[in-house]
Amino acid sequence: MARARGDVDYYAVLGVAPGASDEEIRRTYRRLALQWHPDRNRGDARAEERFKEISEAYAVLMDPAKRRAWEAARQGGVTAGFPHSREDVFRDLFNDPRASAVFEELTRELERLGLRVNRQDFERTLFGGRVVVTGGVFTISPWRVLGRVAGTGLRALGRRLLGLPARAGQARPDVVFPLQLTAVEAHRGGRRRVTLSRPDGDDEVLVTIPPGVRAGTRLRLRGKGRALPGGARGDAYLVVDIAG
After folding, report:
1. 66 burial class (0-12, 13-18, 19+ CB within 10 angstroms)?
2. Which of 62, 81, 114, 221 satisfies CB 3.0 to 4.6 Å to 236 for a cystine?
3. d(Cα 67, Cα 72) in Å, to the nearest integer?
4. End-to-end alpha-carbon separation of the chain, Å?
5. Are 28 and 15 in contact (CB under 8 A)?
6. Last residue within a domain, chosen from 127, 147, 170
7. What is the number of alpha carbons within 13 Å of residue 96 lying toward its C-beta?
8. How many domains are there within the chain?
9. Model pTM?
10. 180 is in which domain, residue-wise?
11. Are residues 33 and 67 in the same domain?
12. Are 49 and 65 members of one domain?
């Protein structure tokens, strides 16, 4: 995940003046987030990245400690003096009720526009969740979940534990598998060959594990779940469990 850098001008990203108040920052972010939300710009990769950029800027500027650290790094000319990764910034944003309350407002506004979203959708958008297939290798961005999901009983309890949405009248036979990693594997990341044992047959995929992945992270394998009527498939999810 891209790093939050001291050489990025977060005021310019949001289009606010240095020293802007929290209320001005929140109001500006809300307007821009409604404009650039990926669900309103389907298929536009630039819109998705722009949404992440303004969200990163909002997260830093709404956190007093990070804002001071970022401003000090820029003023001192030491761009490496602001060490927080984008993932760190987003994680802290969702753990800050004062700052993350804006997502409730955005949810209501997007629903008025006919888009069905919730707080978890914002987390998925900002932390990733797209599956990119290149030469048979699945590169998966982590989806952060609140709390650690135990490895036992995941197949039976997966949908309830993970909060996967199901639309009324529409079956979504997703399957959930535990992904056991050692602490070293989780820290370093890398590739793991995983066998998905489904009722209708096994499937083997090569998964790229992001460095620093956390216990409870769920990795989505689109189209690797149970067979659906008509030939399509649901999704499969790998839930990370770290030994020790």
Report:
1. buried
2. 221
3. 8
4. 26
5. yes
6. 127
7. 19
8. 2
9. 0.53
10. 131-242
11. yes
12. yes
Percent with pLDDT over 90 in the chain: 19
Whether residues 122 and 145 share a domain: the answer is no
Q: Is residue 5 part of a domain?
A: no
Token pair recorded at residue 51? 């949404």
Tokens 């499969």 belong to which residue?
Answer: 236
CATH number at residue 193: 2.60.260.20
Q: Which two tokens stand for residue 10?
A: 């977060």
Q: Are residues 38 and 96 in the same domain?
A: yes
Spans of the chain, pLDDT less than 70 = 1-6, 77-81, 128-172, 244
State the Cα–Cα distance between residues 25 and 99, nearest whole angstrom.
Answer: 10
The token pair that represents 79 in the structure block: 């761009």
Residues 32, 85, single domain; the answer is: yes
- Domain final residue, candidates 83, 111, 127: 127
- In terms of domains, do 203 and 164 share one? yes
What's the one-letter identity of residue 38?
A: P
Q: Are 214 and 181 in contact (CB under 8 A)?
A: no
Does residue 1 lie within any of the structural domains? no
CB 20 within 8 A of CB 101: no
List the structure tokens of 76.
Answer: 């001192």
| Contacts (Cβ under 8 Å, ≥6 apart) of 85 | 1, 3, 4
Q: Is 148 exposed, middle or buried (0-12, 13-18, 19+ CB in 10 A)?
A: middle
Q: What is the pLDDT of residues 154-208, one digit of tens each?
A: 333 344 334 444 443 334 477 788 888 888 888 888 888 888 877 777 788 888 8
How far CA 7 is from CA of 36, 72, 128, in Å, comes to 23, 11, 24
Look at residues 145, 106, 111, 122 and name the one whose alpha carbon lies nearest to residue 241. Answer: 145
CA 142 to chain centre: 6
